[in-house]
Amino acid sequence: MEKGELRLRKWWWAALAAVLMLGIGLSAGMWLGWGGKATKSPDGRVTVPPAQTPGTGNPAPATPAAEPKPPGDEEILAFVHKFMQARMAGDMGSIAQMVAPAVDPASIRVTKTGVRITGYSATVASGKGTADTVAVALWAALGTGQPGGEVEVAALQVSWKGQLKVAGYTVSVPDSLALAPGKDGNLYLHSGQSTTTGAVLAALPAVFTPHGAGPGIEFGVGKDGWAVASPSLAGDRIAWCTRGLHPLFGTSRVVFGSAPTVTPLDLMFEAGCVDAAWSPAGEYVALVVAQPSGAVTLHVWDVQAKQRFGPDLQAAVGTVDYTVSNIRWLTGGTVVAFDVQQGGNRSGPWRYDVITKQLTPP
User: Fold this and answer.
1) How many C-beta atoms surround the C-beta of residue 306 within 10 A?
2) I need a labelling partner for 324 at 20 to 30 A (CA). Which of 130, 237, 256, 339 fits?
3) What pTM was computed for the model?
4) Which domains does the chain carry?
């Protein structure tokens, strides 16, 4: 074989080897770079981009924000308590800020001349809300002039997306209560189309012993009519007090369709009942009493234990010349608030805790 032909063959094999090496390099670069482009420098060297971790070049789409969850029962009830405190105070400005535009604040009854909210109870009604609201069942005691009173039963819808608002307020007329004397002089409790007897004036005892008096000390019961009548929020009890020389104070347990169970508790010797309000749970009655001394003071009755207690307001104000008024039960139902008129000055709210027996001035 001639030398020229041998050199040609060597050159051909060298060229083939170079082409193969270039192909292998390009393939390796594409595999390592996951699609990166190889570049060739002027001197013939091939440059492959550094390998990338999958996903770092194009970030994954952002995860959608989770749907907000409704607030817990405690937060909802705290808002309802604030709403009810504004109603009890007759604060229409605060009420207007707490209701949604679809609710007319003027349609919600508040404490004003001739109407007083004396207590309330609220419960979150599970399963009765909507996608945007939480349902709350509400009972509110209304003093509309003695003797008598009402319990308003209502359903609230509290919207929670954004700021808490009362988005709906519907009074259930069939469930609400009204207590008043009838034409025959007896007390009657009305609920929708149903009526039951609360107390019969003629059936009360003829004589009774004043609270704290010794055995055998009795006086005739005044039966000139009713001075005070007040229903409990549950509608199962009535507090009442008669008019006359020695008024009788007591309670009745009522069941629609049955006769009431009457329990006399105290005889007001030459005194008189002015106002009464049940605690929300129906355990206590706050009773305003006009004393022979001229003072108008506060008694609290534990109706189950048949015990009477109350604050020493004479010591607190320094005189017997004072008048208690505007009694109402605060959040929690164990503190009764009231105002005190002394001379030309009115102060309040005073607070009396029926558990600790502690009196707190304003």
Assistant:
1) 13
2) 237
3) 0.80
4) 74-171 (3.10.450), 195-360 (2.140.10.30)
